[in-house]
């Protein structure tokens, strides 16, 4: 059964992601990469805002793997963008 804190976390993350889609749509810059990066930022913020003070539940300890995967995806997006900016003669592939 879901705890109150877990549902608070899920609601916060879903609200952040919906607000991200709406904001990016209104700005006319909705893309998968921007949505991913903004959602990752939201995940980090919601994780910190809903962190318990005394006891860490088991489901929160598994969040570190999700955050680690998100940071790896962010690194991939950054490297891809850097490769796009560099001139073709700098990048060997």
From TrEMBL:
InterPro entries linked to this entry: DUF8044
Keyword entries, A-Z: Membrane, Transmembrane, Transmembrane helix
Entries under Pfam families matching the protein: DUF8044 (PF26161)
Transmembrane keyword on record: yes
TM spans (from-to): 65-83
The name this protein goes by in its record: Uncharacterized protein
Organism in which the protein naturally occurs: Saliphagus infecundisoli
């Amino acid at each position: 059964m879901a705890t109150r804190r877990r549902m608070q976390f899920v609601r916060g993350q879903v609200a952040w992601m919906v607000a991200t889609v709406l904001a990016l749509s209104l700005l006319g810059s909705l893309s998968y990469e921007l949505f991913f990066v903004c959602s990752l930022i939201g995940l980090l913020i919601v994780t910190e805002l809903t962190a318990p003070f005394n006891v860490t539940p088991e489901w929160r300890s598994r969040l570190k793997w999700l955050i680690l995967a998100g940071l790896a995806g962010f690194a991939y997006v950054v490297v891809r963008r850097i490769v796009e900016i560099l001139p073709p003669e700098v990048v060997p592939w």
